[in-house]
Amino acid sequence: MRKLQSILATTVCLLFLMAGTALAEEPKKTLTGDINLAQAQVILKAALVKAEAIKVPMNIAIVDAGGNLKAFYRMEDAFLGSIDISMKKAMTARYFNMSTRALGAASQPGKPLYGIEVTNHGLAIFAGGVLLVDKKNVIIGAIGVSGGSVDEDESVALAGAAALAK
């Protein structure tokens, strides 16, 4: 019995070693259609420039194609409550592949998406969340901005998104 246990233990160890070698030799895969840190920084800088120009302290969140936070900046004196809102605006835009303004319009009473804001642990359905699309017209993430009026938030988000076209 001990000999059988020893053989089984050796076999299991060899299998783990072989699996580890196979994994190490596999080439690194990169996701297509996802924002990288350099792009996120360019977008964030453009959004900050716009927020400074309109003199409104903002919270700016950038999420990747999976809706995960990639970059965030809270300007001095930006509302603390707007931290969460900016992140939710970015995630909402990415989850539904549309601006939060468009989703908000479709979710009003009597509209087809009425009540959607209570799904996904809460969504932000007012302007300030915009998709990020690369030069090949591929969605790579989204930006969400909060701290001013919804129009100010959206203008900062659009300024950030426009930086990808340059």
Query: Roughly what percent helix?
Result: 40-55%
Q: N- to C-terminal separation?
A: 70 Å
Proportion of residues in extended strands: 15-25%
> Rounded to an integer, what's the Rg over CA atoms?
22 Å
Major sheet = 4 strands, antiparallel
The whole-number mean of residue pLDDT values reads 86
CATH topology: Beta-Lactamase
Question: CATH class, anyone?
Answer: Alpha Beta
Contiguous helical run count? 5
Query: Can you identify the CATH superfamily?
Result: Haem-degrading domain
Second rung of CATH, namely the architecture: 2-Layer Sandwich
Helix and strand pattern: HHEEHHEEH
Q: How many structural units, i.e. domains? A: 1
Shape: globular
Which structural class best describes the helix and strand composition?
A: alpha+beta
Strand elements, count: 4
Brief synopsis:
The protein has 166 residues and is an alpha+beta fold.
Characterise this structure.
By secondary structure, the chain is an alpha+beta fold. It has a single domain, classed as Beta-Lactamase. It is 47% helix and 15% strand. It is built from five helices and four strands, in the order ααββααββα. Strands 2-1-4-3 form a four-stranded antiparallel beta sheet. Strand 1 and strand 2 form a beta hairpin. Helix 2 crosses helix 5. It is globular. About 15% of the residues have low confidence.
